[in-house]
Design goal:
Length: 316
């Protein structure tokens, strides 16, 4: 049986850097892929920064719902920035190497931000539950102190989950190869080519991290079951449409984000395919952060109104 040695002893003598194999594409198509990736990254930055700016400057958006949405946009910017710049650098210059420390930091920040977003989406579901099911007590249930408490809990749980996973993964030995069959340092590909016993790391990822993810997802579903039950008691059709319209955007984001994460991290290791994992990772690491501002703005009349007011001030 292999011995899992402490971080910093075996790892540093056997592997000092990793090679990210990335995408298997024709070298002639790398320029096109780089241009497309750069466009997506810039759209992600512009879209999420626009949401944050609107929330800061428009008084009508100074509510708990948009406080959480602004923080979600900030997380999305950081989340995609942990992977996209390195991918673009690799496509542009062909430098696929990443240092041992750099890989560990990338994994830590990526898992931290992903875990934080999971809990923050739950906090946003609670906000909708409080607004629709208990409108008279909404200001009490979503006071400024509670909003900051929910945000602090999101970051604390995300950091704790990431510390545990990063410490376990990088206490393993990587002595057979230094090639990571992925475009960034993620848990499944690192576990796949480790020459140590990875059973503990897989158990923690599946039970601890996956369990937290499932619990948060079930609580979100429960909140929306209660919301639907409350909305159906609304006597007017206009009231029902207004209530449901405030939830559609959030449900869309939850479905995409949680669906792709569960597919990647909760499946049994025997069913993992690196080709499929790379494609799914593109969705939750790069595409979803770009789509979120569009999802929240296209179907949200309050955000659309804020955009119009901002444009009128600029023109005036």
């Amino acid at each position: 049986m292999d011995i899992i040695e402490p971080l910093g002893r075996q790892n540093q003598t056997s592997v000092t850097e990793f090679v990210l194999l990335g995408f298997s594409v024709d070298p002639k198509k790398k320029s096109l892929l780089f241009a497309l990736g750069l466009l997506v990254y810039l759209l992600t930055l512009v879209g999420n920064l626009a949401i944050i700016t609107l929330i800061q400057i428009d008084q009508c958006l100074q509510t708990p719902m948009y406080f959480l949405l602004g923080n979600l946009s900030f997380i999305e910017i950081c989340y995609t920035s942990t992977t996209a710049p390195k991918v673009l650098w690799d496509l542009l210059l062909g430098d696929r190497t990443i240092s041992f420390v750099g890989c560990a930091l990338q994994l830590y920040f990526f898992v931290t931000l992903g875990g934080t977003e999971c809990v923050l989406l739950l906090a946003m579901a609670y906000d909708r539950y409080a607004a629709i099911c208990h409108p008279l007590r909404y200001t009490l249930l979503m006071s400024q102190e509670i909003c900051w408490g929910l945000l602090a809990c999101s970051w604390a749980l995300g950091n704790f989950n990431s510390l545990v996973n990063t410490a376990l993964v990088f206490s393993l030995n990587f002595c057979h190869s230094n090639e990571i069959d992925h475009f960034f340092c993620d848990i499944p590909p690192l576990l796949q080519f480790s020459c140590s016993d990875t059973s503990v790391s897989r158990l923690v990822t599946f039970n601890f991290s996956g369990g937290n993810m499932i619990v948060a997802f079930r609580l979100i579903l429960l909140s929306y079951i209660l919301i639907v039950s409350s909305v159906l008691k609304t006597h007017t059709a206009q009231g029902r449409i207004k209530a449901f319209s405030t939830c559609v955007s959030h449900l869309t984001v939850v479905s995409i984000f949680y669906g792709t994460l569960m597919y990647t991290y909760i499946r049994p290791s025997s069913s993992h395919s690196m080709e499929q994992d790379r494609l799914v990772a593109v969705l939750y690491a790069i595409i979803t952060p770009m789509l979120n501002p569009l999802i929240y703005s296209l179907r949200n009349k309050e955000v659309q109104g804020a955009v119009q007011r901002a444009l009128s001030k600029y023109r005036g």
